Fold:
Amino acid sequence: MKCIEQLIAKYLTKNLSEEETEYLRRWVEELPGREEYLRRLAERNDFSVKYRRYEAVDAEGAKRRFLRKIRRRQIFDTTHWAWYSAAAVAALIVVSVWFSRTSESEAPAFLLTEVAPGTTQAVLVLENGSEFSLTRGGETIAFDDSLSARTEDGAITYNPGHAVKSPEYHTLVVPRGGEYRITLSDGTRVHINADSKLRFPVAFSGSERRVQLSGEAYFEVAKEAARPFVVEAGAARVRQYGTIFNINTYNDAAEVVLVSGAIGVSRENGAEVSLAPGQLAVCDEGIEVRDVDVLPYIAWTKGRFTFDDERLVDIAEDLMRWYDVEIEILDPEIADMRFTGSVGRDQSIEHIMNAISYTQNVRVEVKENKIEIFK
Amino acid sequence: MNNKGFIQRINKRELDAFKELYDRYYRTLVVYAANFIDDGDVGEDLVQEVIINIWEHRLSFSSYAAFTTYLYNAVRNASLNYLKHQGVTQKYMEYLSQTYSPVDEEAVNDEEIYRHLFKLIDELPPRCREIFLLHMEGKKNEEIAAMLQLSVETVKTQKKRAMAYIRDNLDKAVLLALAINGGKACFFEILNGC
Structure:
């Protein structure tokens, strides 16, 4: 704001000091017409009427209309991608830039660049139903006289409690668009992915350490030879004695990947199958074991999406959970296209969508409140 | 956020900067358009088009002053253009374009004065704001007290509060502008009683 404008503003609100009045007087005398200008501006009623009008204008509504309008006209900018798909390796990749031609009623509710990645967030549910929202670090939660847990950025640690006969169970609920880490009272560390739940006793008792998982989690189990650690996850029962492994039950089958150590996988009351590091057990009607590259399975714990010849439908599932957004694949033949690539989970979804659309020349568009992928 | 950074972000077409543009300017521009056009809805549409045009044509600006000048003049031109198509008489058009001459980057811009003032008035607590506005409409302390069913003392105190808030913040705004632009001339003027 110019100096003289500020002075006039003070004049209008009758806020001038003597010195300032003198300065303004000299400014007025400098040029003809300035006096008349100032008089017109000082019309008190004008000032008030103007403000009442100003006050009544809905800037927020206008902002929303603006956003709707430009979203309908959004185009994708070209970027370079280190992605490839099996079918497109030898092919010349055609980069297409297009204008969306959606009608007014299908106006998208957001821009791809606005779809933010997930954050560390979780809700802790106690047995009595009370809930603690875990978004801030540096808090100590006292559950009762002897039991407490401490939060830090994105993680919660349970103090080693004293053994009780029938310990209370807590459930850590991580929503879509979230992830969270927990250290259980025995020192076992669990990294829990989006849209997942872990139910665990606040202190372990008896001859086993038993927890229940739905969704996906990465376990680093504290070694205790005398007390095996058992995870119940979907159809799978995973029993082990101090190892690192990843389980997910996002699909109907539970997938268990062993990173190091040794585990036994069984179905409920079924025979146990031993897993060696680098092996995947798919636990459904039966248990199928095969050798895999573990990296794509645990990349999420290192903050990355890594897809190795992965079907687009499965990639979309992953993205929906992490970005908490709806993705629809309109053409069935696209759903089975396979992609290989790696990208940070902290990137906006636009990066991944661009990568996908450029490698296979499919189109991505935001329609209403979801992302559509089509030919 | 400072003005220079704001313009850089507008030039880069950052969505957040455009949202901020709405916060900073939309209401002022609509009030400005009302000088030309009585119909508030038409005024709002014209202002919307001016902003959307900046986005769509990727307009960029060399300075904050150039940007504000553009905004006011674009709204002015759009308004006059609209009136021309409405078949408004030549005489009235002349009157309007003379009364509301194009905004000059160097000259005093009363719309900017209002914009700063209105922003500060907006920030006042509701009762304090009401008292201040009635005062600006020329009402006496006793009248205001009777209208709002308050004691004269309260009216006086609230009025003082409003005045002090506006004065202090106008001072701050100028100091901030100086810090950003390094405007030595104006700084000199301040030392001389500005």
Chain A touches chain B at residues 1-10, 12-15, 19-20, 22-23, 37, 41, 44-45, 47-48, 50-55, 57, 59-60, 62-63, 65-67, 69-70, 73, 111, 113-114 (CB under 8 Å). Confidence is low (pLDDT under 50) at residues 73-106 of chain A. The longest helix of chain A spans residues 59-72. Chain A has three domains: 3-56, 76-115+304-374, 119-298.
